[in-house]
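Researcher: Re-running this chain for the archive, since the previous output was lost when a drive failed. Same request as before.
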Amino acid sequence: MKKKNLFLICAFIILSATMISCNNSGLNEDVRSDVSEPVTEAASIEVDISYGNSLDTASEPESDPEPESETMTEVDKSENSESYEDPQFTIMDPDLDIVVTDGTEYYEGFQVDNILHSSDGLPDLYYHIYVPESYNGDKAYALYIVLPGHGAYYFDGKKSAKNLYDEYYATEAKKYNDEMIIVAPQLEDYDEEMDDLAASEEIHKPQVIRLTEYILSTYNINRDKVYISGFSRGGEVMSLAVSERPELYSAAVHMSSIWRGDASIISREHFPLYFAIGESDEAYGSEPVKKTYEEIASVYEKEGLSKEEMNNLLVLDIKDWDYFTSQDYDNQHFGADLFAYDRAIMGWLLNHE
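Model: Regenerated structure tokens:
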């Protein structure tokens, strides 16, 4: 009997201890569960301070988004540019300190009346630009800059784009190379108190150089194919710009004009130059151009250049009356319009290597 009572007492003690242990285990599990839930929830979310977005760490990590461009530039022909309506100022190159207002109208594929603003005191320069649809910046394109005669200057906006629809060098040039950007600056008329040469030297030359630098810094340009031409007053400006910064350009055509630049720089740099003018040009005559040609040619002859080398560097193309009258022009100076269609002239320039 005593053994039986002892057995019952022991069994009761063991059973009580088991129940206490189970209760404590359940309580601890509940406590851990209650405490761990907010910790787990907090750990599952990170805050990206840079962009203010919540990132779920349970999902695949996402790369940081590319920051959006602050301004739409002319070289950026993205979908944003398609909805672009109003002109806006866009700093294109901090080193050049240039600001551009984009034009909003088009003529023959040219975006017209873009405005180049400089902080160095130069007047605003209006220019028109043709960028082929194929251009996306990956491949270097040729560049052709066309300087107009005085009759196609800007004149306070009264002759907007006249250098495109009255002079045909820019529009015709598209036929020579479908991978070429064409820029046609429309030089502004100058103060009546300033003479022609002073305006070309002090205003238009630095404007053209500034525009060239801007285009070269903004677009992917093949630096071996940077061409420039100038007709009449534009030929004077071109001669000054090329003489001052020959390294910017690859070849030039000087049409029905006079050379105002330094011919010694042309010969020294072996800069490719083509002179085209009527024998009896009403504005300039052909004698001044002949003298400039002879000055440069004499240097090349002393250097022993071959005829082929000379033709690649220097050409004098004097047109007689028949060239003009056979194509219904009775004025040799304004007959320079025909040069735009003359493949001997334009082909020499735009295919020059």
